[in-house]
Amino acid sequence: MSRRGRTVAAVVLAAATAMVTLGTAPGATAAPVVVAAAADGVTADGVSARATAALPRPTGPYPVGTTAVHLTDRNRVDPWKPDRQRELMISIWYPAARPVTGADRAAYMVPAAAEHFDGDGNAGVMNYGFAPGRTDWAAVRTHARVDASASPGGRRPVVLYSPGLGDPRTWGTALVEDLASRGYVVVTVDHTWEASEVAFPNGELAASVLPGMLGPDLDVGALLRKSMATRVDDTRFVLDELEHLKHSRGLPTGLGAALDLDRIGMVGHSAGGFTALQAMHDDRRIAAAVDLDGQLHFPGRDGRTGTYLSGVAQDGLDRPFLLMGTRSDDSGSYHAQPGWDALWQHSTGWRADVTLDGSRHGSYTDAESLLPQLARQGAITPDQLRADTGDVDPGRAVLATRTYVASFLDRWLRGHDDHLLDGPSARFPEVVYER
């Protein structure tokens, strides 16, 4: 769930209210992150072309590989579609054996998902407000090679990534690729029927059910509880499946052997951050987690009244976690959030909380690097861009997110402490260390 008013969760809350009265390798110096600019697109006859954008390059020493995997939970009925078994798509991002050339770079989204993500009324447009039909998402490229052989070097820590409510698993690619380039194996999870769209290998496109659920009888609190329970179940199922995939011949060469399932962390944005902490609370296989601006409490039925703490907020955690907040209307430090404050007071494990000054809710996602480029091409208005990502410099926001997340994971999954999280840092004056 978002902690402010721009994502699908917030759209659900707002609609309901209206209707009822809704970085670098370990030990190295951080290099600048350049957020590439796409040129204004105009065809020869003067008609505006569809906008496109480029992701910032990973900063670690390893080239990156990626592979997509289709999973079916034969022991679980899909909560959103009770006539079906629960099916998921995941992508695994990992250090690759060979460099990736321009021609080999994987697409950011498969064509069917890219076209839907750009369509009017879908969860992606609702979340970030870019103009439908104006962006060629299929033309965006990652920095990874599909099905590349994994780099040798033994077992590597595994990190799960969960996106925000309504976001696809691709929407954190800049962070995920960077972690893979630093030596992590990262597993991104699409939460089917909630994500804006999920493309399956058989050609089916599972579009989000959330936009169609808005109505005067919507129980917002129940919807968000259902979403969170489903997400945590998805996460635990993926952890189970990784045990099987580790010994599977279906993964790229060397990838199964690289999975160190004794060192598992999780990172998530918005509802994905909530998912990461709640899943760590429920499943001791997760040793450490990062919550990127995700609240830890539920509203009442109307979305306006009531504050109901989640299980993780009520009980606290005995393992390390990092909270990363934003400078938006109702965000900031853990002191300002009932769920975050309860978690802080009830936890016994190591913990830290930082706030990225000048940021908004989308600053911890690919919105921070991609949307400014789309704004220069007229696919999103300057006001909407500011509402999504704030006034923070995009390159600095990307660098700060990558560096702080990697510092936390290095400390607790690799035993390497660069002391960035000990207190305020002169390297990142825009990051406020909360006490």
From TrEMBL:
Residues 1-30 form the signal peptide. One of its GO terms (biological process) is lipid catabolic process. This is Esterase. Pfam families: PAF-AH_p_II (PF03403). Keywords: Hydrolase, Lipid degradation, Lipid metabolism, Signal. GO terms for molecular function: 1-alkyl-2-acetylglycerophosphocholine esterase activity.
